[in-house]
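Thread title: Can someone regenerate the structure for this chain?

I was given the following input by a collaborator and told the matching structure tokens would be attached. They weren't. Posting the sequence so someone can regenerate them.
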Amino acid sequence: MIAQQIQLGFTAYIYDFKFPDLTRIAYNVALKNRDKYPVPPKFYFLNFDDLGRSHRCNILSPETMMDITDAADSSRTILMALNREWIRKTGDFFVESPIVFLTAIFWYLKKYKNGIFCTLPHAIELCSVEYKKLFPVLSLEESGSTTILLNPFLSAWLNGANEQLEGQIASAKIGMARLASPSLYYILSGNDFTLDINDPQAPKLVCVGNNPAKAQIYGAVLSLCTERMLKMVNRKGRLKSTLIFDEFPTIFVNNIDSLIATARSNKVATTLAIQDFSQLRKDYGKEQADVIINVCGNIASGQVLGDSARQISDRIGRIMQERESISINSSDTSVSKSTQLEAAIPPSRIASLSSGEFVGAVADDPLQKIKLKAFHCEIQADIAAINREEAAYEELPVIRNVTPEVIQQNYMQIKQDIESLIESELSRINAQLPAPAKQDPNHDTQAISF
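Best answer:
Regenerated them for you:
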């Protein structure tokens, strides 16, 4: 499917759970099909293990954060991805509070000096600053939006309700602290490319890679990367694009059902690969998982068991089937025939499919009617030809030589950036106060007026 869509000139965003399995296929197919695009696309990789074979991308780019709702969506996405049980508790006080706090962090960095430090690594470091320094600095944001978001936290802090304050925002600080890694900081603080994959003037093929051994941490970052990409892709007047998610439940994409429903008209094809419906329900909650499953127009399934098999059987539908029964007694034999509405492919058949066998149903459109939408087929793969093709694949190129010293230097520079920001802003606060009110930046600043 990846090869066919690239051959048809689709731009692509591919979530490769076991990087570089799918990335290697996409890269080599793209090398042979650059002529299929009006403007030859560029290929970008993003992974956090082999840094020499990864581009760098600021997924929290200030240019793509148009208003505070974008910051709110981003904070919700990354915190939900880090704390999957929150998906079932949307609206809860101790779920929404850390989301609002992180929204304030993102929006402050967007507005501070035109977003000079608006990156996820800088946001992680800013979250770790102690309250008595952080709150006065965040309150300096000129539009006032950050102050409004911070108002409940400031009230709790100034009134000495420290236990309540910790309960409100500790989840955000702890969750973001789990992402504090030199390799993550290095990849996420660069600007090799942007995520508008279907830009007519600069089409892109982007592969983002996870690692099964570090799926929760990397998955949270890639969830945010996907959320930011979707904001730019789902628009009118763009090139046709494909979004392919391998092991989709390992990332959290907020409102993915709305994307599937609306992106069709914007020439965006979305493919979700999951092992079993129960896996999706576990990570997304039953209600949202059911909506995601039902909103997809096409479905193809290999062997699955239990409720997944029954659901696919119901999706394919029922047909009239002939039945014949024979009754034999001492005097005669009778044969009766009847027709009965039964499942076209019963769950027991789906549960016993062999490797390479698939069942499912496809959708059509008014210009291309499909008379028989349901199918039960077997893919006849030429294994020898596939092996020969894969043996001829080129390896992914080395983007740059990255040394541990460069990674550590970048890590320390981001920490220094936030320390300098806090010191300069606290100095500015003290310079604006009457002389008797000036305080040492390291002293409790609760007396400062906001």
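Residues 404-432 form the longest helix (29 residues).
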